[in-house]
């Protein structure tokens, strides 16, 4: 059996995918969410994914895993068979839905943990998913990035497929590109070196060989940093150098895994026998190479759930494309499509601005946009501010941040987001001048920081030998023990003055102190050894505690994060959209990038721009065109509502091919459901299925109900799934009370739907008519 890793699929033969034989020749062998207390989602049980208790209790049953999910999230969680496509808007709880889907399947005994592989795009996202699955009682499920999954597969199968040891993996390819340029006698400055490296990466993920680069770049409309023929020459020289030095890069990990799976059917079957169920998060970001790898991984099966949002496609420069997401129903005509549009993250005011941005969008992704519906109470309107120059804009942001801190907003719940990393320095200086702590997003991972590693060693030593440590004599509880240990590592009750490395080290240690306090509050009997075990699990999952400091981050690196207050700065023409975005597609991606920034905010949103770059400069800048019609005094936006913008569920009948993926019809507002006995408005999910209150008298046909239960047991045994996956008890009760006579009447009963009507309708109507199914109620 392969190691617990993740097989990832690959690309067409025309591309840079080599056969196993050529590989052998060319690469020499060498050395949280908390479980909500309310029982129904209508009464606040659904919360934002990252706004939850730090140490929630593990649900005590499979059904408990479903508690607090809204109807669409519950549909995701219980749709465990066949292809499933989840179109999830920003803040709609997509991670919650898919982790509960996996956990529900595992806890219900439908999915074996070791047979499930969840793939996402960043180590942070994979770590978060592992942490949530652990909290839901679904240990043993693999959650990895594409590259991590493929690397584990490649390391395991390389000796068998190629022979020898896997070549060394290089962390950065810039130096190798520089050496290739020197070999070609081509001079590259630092910026050109970076850009050529990016072009090589794009070529490899789109499976373009060096000779085809000029044509492929022209077809993709790429702005090449040098003459395309020169880049092709550099690309070819780079590949030659890698072979000569017996090294591979990150893209090779995917390419070589694809080559092995394509060439060795026995290895492909071994991988497929290990993993039977796949979940792919952020599916709008897959590259052609990753999609090919996924296809090889799946084989001829369709046990796949993909999750994504075309309106958050912001990495096309790396080869990502939303086409795989948008074409999912074309490739899988029988797929269940679920749209998540209930936004639990942001206030109606923030959501209104986000919807307004996309209402003006154009292109294919815009045609499939999701119109969010905020589930939160109203908050303040977004604030728009104009400044004379960039330093004044940074100082203005620092003043507003100081006001928020003074009003009680934690520094860790505030972010400043900008278009390019080059804008960071001005804001670092402004925050430092105002005495405001900050952290740079994209810096070293928390558990990899030297001070955190040293602190972990100190805590582990205290847990083992603390009885002999005089520093712990006066420590009466877990938090005081941690404070005593970390005081020897540089932690103090008060933060050091100023900013810089000293302050950053203190913030890291303070995060561990705060984590210990939260851990002790959740588990009063916890010991220092328990905390060390918790830290080890978090390090493995990269589930870092919160560092107290305002976050400075680029819009790209902010994807997947959220804060109470967000400052979007530099929102001016030339920066948003960026100057080099010229084509319609590039402009629309810039709009989506701003949309991602807006949807990071939970409550407060500040949007600002400067009229000139430096003090005294010409005030020739203007606010971003994306704000036209949205900010006060800028006219009226010409918006549009595309088909399928609303939420809902669509189940495709299995085996019914269609020429193109049909748009999911927009849900219309329904009148409140009322009890058919007393007339009271119904809100409970079970009562909605019965169309009556639980305590209202039932006119159920008891004999029919028992026949339906016997028939359901047979169907469940035949399909190898729990009985409630056929029909729940409430649905059977509703059928036995209604006694439908024709398909239309049966379809109107909640819990039936088109898919189950097509599959079970004939039998159910026959039972309702009193017919004998001829042995159907007996076990085979």
UniProtKB/TrEMBL annotation:
Annotated HRDC domain residues: 698-778
InterPro entries: DExx_box_DNA_helicase_dom_sf, DNA_helicase_UvrD-like_C, DNA_helicase_UvrD/REP, HRDC-like_sf, HRDC_dom, HRDC_dom_sf, P-loop_NTPase, UvrD-like_ATP-bd
Catalytic reactions of this protein: Couples ATP hydrolysis with the unwinding of duplex DNA by translocating in the 3'-5' direction; ATP + H2O = ADP + phosphate + H(+)
Biased composition annotated in UniProt, kind: Low complexity: 633-643, 651-665
One Gene Ontology term of the molecular function aspect: ATP hydrolysis activity
Domain UvrD-like helicase ATP-binding span(s) in chain numbering: 67-347
CDD domains referenced in this protein's UniProt entry, alphabetically: DEXQc_UvrD, SF1_C_UvrD
Residues that bind ATP: 88-95
Disordered: annotated span: 1-45, 613-670
Top-rank taxon: Bacteria
Family listed: Belongs to the helicase family. UvrD subfamily.
UniProt-recorded name of the protein: ATP-dependent DNA helicase UvrD2
Species of the source: Streptomyces lasalocidi (Streptomyces lasaliensis)
